[in-house]
Write a structure and sequence with these properties.
single chain, six-stranded mixed β-sheet, Restrct_endonuc-II-like, 32% helix, alpha+beta, 7 helices, tRNA_endonuc-like_dom_sf
Length: 168
């Protein structure tokens, strides 16, 4: 069950990446897919895009519930339980280690791309600290507990950290 679910989620994620790549290419960006390169994989970067002499690093996430919740969820912490010892190891989620400039969340429910200016979000993290709500849940894809940083779309927009684009 788990392996087929993981394959399905991975396939959906790759489709979201292709959608973003096509969207950016259609708007004149040069898009280099670097998602399979080890350094970029570890730094959570899918694309390096260029236009008008500017270069940005992009990470793509698929969020099937974003339109419904109107919240952006950032992966904060993984809780991995060792089957042999029963000990739980805590690992940082991509919120802490991603080196991307922008996170683009694909929302198939409303056919929108939610582009978070991630570098600016991290630069303003202290002033936005009270905007984050922390939620734990079990991830069937990763087979572990996770803690997510949840922030309303409206808060990101008010702070100039979010742009929304229709991909239809």
């Amino acid at each position: 069950m788990h392996s087929s679910y993981f394959v399905l989620k991975n396939k959906e994620g790759k489709q979201a990446e292709q959608l973003v790549k096509d969207y950016l290419t259609d708007r004149g960006y040069t898009v280099q897919d670097v998602s399979e390169e080890q350094d970029n994989y570890q730094n959570d970067i899918d694309f390096i895009v260029q236009k008008d002499g500017r270069t940005s690093k992009i990470e793509v996430k698929l969020d099937t519930r974003l339109a419904e919740t109107q919240n952006i969820a950032f992966e904060d912490v993984f809780y991995l339980k060792d089957k042999e010892t029963g000990q739980t190891e805590t690992r940082e989620g991509y919120y802490h280690y991603s080196q991307c400039d922008f996170l683009i969340f694909v929302s198939p429910a409303d056919n929108n791309l939610y582009m978070v200016h991630f570098r600016k979000l991290k630069e303003n993290e202290i002033s936005l600290e009270n905007c984050f709500k922390f939620v734990k849940f079990y991830s069937y894809t990763d087979r572990c507990q996770k803690r997510m940083r949840i922030v309303p779309v409206s808060t990101l927009k008010e702070n100039g950290l979010l742009s929304i684009f229709s991909y239809q």
